[in-house]
Design brief:
Layout (H helix, E strand, L loop, with lengths): L1 H12 L1 H20 L1 H15 L5 H22 L3 H17 L1 H4 L6 H26 L1 H5 L9 H36 L10 H11 L6 H43 L1 H7 L6 H28 L16
Helix pairs in contact: 1-2, 1-13, 2-3, 2-4, 2-13, 5-7, 7-9, 9-11, 9-12, 11-13
Length: 313
C-alpha cells in the first residue's frame, strides 16, 4: 500500500503523469457534456448535494468552459516536447543509418524498415508539437497578444493536427510490426551460472545409468519440470512485452479519432471523441505509471528501441 501511494505521488507530480491526469479529467468532462445519461446523472448528483435543481444549459456551459481550460492547461506541459521528439528522431535515424548498427547481424529489408516507422512517428509528432506551440499565444485569448490572425491560427491548428494524425498512424503500424519482431528476436534465457544444485544435476545425469527404472523416471520428470519452468518464465517475459506493444498500438489507433475529426477525415460525435480520449488516456498512462513505479523501487528500466536493431551485450 505504501509503495502504491508513493507511486501515485510520483505519477501526479511527474510532468507527463500530471498531463495524463488532466487529459483524463478532460475526457470525463467531455463525456459528461455530450452523452445524455451521464449528463442527467451529473444533474441528479448536483441537485442531491446542493438541494437545488441546476440549470441544464448553465451546467453544460460550465462543462464546455472547463473542457477548454483543461485543454489549454495541458498545452503548457507540451510546450517544449517538440525538441524531445525531433531529437529522438534524429538520434534514431543516425543509429539506423550507421553500418555499425547492423554489423555481424543478419536482418531482412522488411525488419530493417520497421524502425523507420518510429523515426517518422517521432518526426511527425515533433512537427505537430512545434506548430501547436506556435499557436499558444492565440489560445490564451489575451487582447493584443495574438501574433496570428484567426485564419492563420485555424490553418496552423489544422496542419498540426494533420501531423499528429500521421504520427499516430506511423506509431500504430510500428508497434504492431514490433510484435512479430519481438517474438523472432527475443533472446533465449541465458544459461544459469554453475551452483551446487547445478553440479548435483550434472552428477545425477552422469549417474543416470546406475539408477533403477523408477529412479530414472523420477529424474526425467524433474528435468522436464525444470525445462518447463524456464520455458514458462521466457513466455511470461515475451507475453508482457507483447501486451505492452499491443497496448501502445491500440492507443495510437484509437487516438487517430481525435485529429481525424479536426481535419475532417473522420466524422463522429464529440461524445465518441471523449470516449476514445478516455480509453487512450488510461492505456498511455499505464506506461507512465510503470515508469514511476520503477523509479520508486529504484529499478533501472530495460533498454528500449526496436527489436529489429541488434542488442549489444
Amino acid at each position: 500500500m505504501s509503495q502504491t501511494f508513493e507511486t501515485f505521488i510520483k505519477f501526479t507530480t511527474d510532468s507527463v503523469g500530471l498531463e495524463r491526469t488532466l487529459r483524463l479529467f478532460q475526457s470525463i468532462v467531455q463525456i459528461l457534456s455530450f452523452f445524455p445519461i451521464p449528463f442527467d446523472l451529473l444533474l441528479y448528483v448536483l441537485s442531491t448535494s446542493t438541494g437545488q435543481t441546476p440549470s441544464s444549459s448553465v451546467t453544460r456551459t460550465v462543462l464546455l468552459a472547463l473542457n477548454q481550460r483543461l485543454a489549454l492547461a495541458r498545452r503548457f506541459f507540451r510546450l517544449f516536447r517538440s525538441l524531445e521528439s525531433l531529437h529522438a528522431a534524429q538520434k534514431l535515424s543516425t543509429r539506423l543509418a550507421s553500418p555499425q548498427t547492423w554489423a555481424g547481424h543478419t536482418r531482412g529489408l522488411l525488419a530493417k524498415s520497421v524502425p523507420w516507422l518510429d523515426v517518422f512517428s517521432k518526426t511527425f509528432n515533433g512537427l505537430y508539437l512545434l506548430l501547436e506551440a506556435s499557436t499558444l499565444p492565440n489560445a490564451l485569448q489575451i487582447p493584443h497578444l495574438a501574433p496570428l490572425t484567426p485564419a492563420q491560427d485555424r490553418l496552423l491548428t489544422a496542419e498540426a493536427q494533420r501531423f499528429w494524425l500521421f504520427s499516430l498512424v506511423c506509431g500504430a503500424l510500428y508497434h504492431a510490426c514490433e510484435i512479430p519482431l519481438l517474438i523472432a528476436y527475443f533472446p533465449p534465457p541465458p544459461p544459469k551460472p554453475e551452483t551446487a544444485g547445478a553440479r548435483e544435476d550434472i552428477d545425477e545425469r552422469l549417474g543416470a545409468e546406475k539408477m533403477s527404472e523408477e529412479e530414472h523416471g523420477e529424474y526425467l520428470k524433474r528435468a522436464a519440470a525444470k525445462r518447463d519452468l524456464v520455458a514458462r518464465d521466457w513466455a511470461r517475459q515475451v507475453s508482457a512485452l507483447v501486451w505492452k506493444l499491443g497496448r501502445a498500438a491500440t492507443a495510437n489507433a484509437l487516438d487517430i479519432v481525435l485529429p481525424g475529426v479536426v481535419v475532417g477525415w473522420i466524422h463522429v460525435s464529440p461524445g465518441t471523441v471523449g470516449v476514445a480520449m478516455f480509453v487512450t488516456t488510461v492505456l498511455t498512462s499505464m506506461d507512465v505509471w510503470e515508469r514511476c513505479g520503477r523509479e520508486v523501487r529504484g529499478v533501472k528500466a530495460a533498454d528500449g528501441g526496436s527489436w529489429a536493431i541488434p542488442r549489444r551485450a
